[in-house]
Amino acid sequence: MVERFEVGARLSEASAHGGMVFLAGQVAGDASQDAFGQTQQVLQSIDRLLGLSGSHKSRILMAQIFLADLADFDAMNKAWDAWVVAGQAPCRATVQAKLAKPEWKVEIVVTAAR
Fold first, then answer.
1. Is 53 left (phi over 0), alpha (psi -120 to 50) or beta?
2. What pLDDT does residue 61 have?
C-alpha cells in the first residue's frame, strides 16, 4: 500500500511504501534568509515530514542537496552538521542547480527507511 502525506494538486510532500519514505524536494518557507537560515528551515521541514510518515532523520538513507550557488556550501554544511545525527550520516550528494525560484538557495530531497 502506498501512503501519501500532505497531498496537493501537483505533488505529495512525502510518500511511503514497503518500509521506505520518499520526500519531495524541501525548500525554505522564508526565502529572505541566508543559506544557513534556509537550510535550517529545510531541515525542520524534513524532520516534520519524516515524523509524520513514521520515520526519523537517523533513518535517512540518501540525501540530495541542490544549491543555487556553491559559494553557499559552507553555510549549508554548518546547518547540516549541527542537525545530522552523530554516527548516522546518510549517503549524500551536493550539486549546484538552478532552483525553481531565484530566491531559493537550497533544496533537499531525502529517502529514508521507516
1. alpha
2. 98
Q: pLDDT tens digits for 9-28?
A: 999 999 999 999 999 999 99
Instruction: Please report the beta strands in the chain, taking only residues with DSSP state E, as ranges in sequence order.
Output: 3-7, 12-17, 20-23, 60-67, 91-96, 106-113
Pairing of strands 106-113, 12-17: unpaired
Q: For residues 21 and 15, give the distance between their C-alpha atoms in angstroms, rounded to a whole number.
A: 6
Q: Residue 84 and residue 90: Cα distance in Å, rounded?
A: 9
Residue appearing with cell numbers 546547518: 79
Domains located in the chain, CATH noted: 3-113 (3.30.1330.40)
Provide the 10 A C-beta neighbour count for residue 54. Answer: 14
C-alpha distance from residue 19 to each of 15, 59, 112, 114 (Å)? 11, 11, 9, 5
Q: How confident is the model at residue 49 (pLDDT cuts 50, 70, 90)?
A: very high
55-74 pLDDT, tens per residue?
999 999 999 999 999 999 99
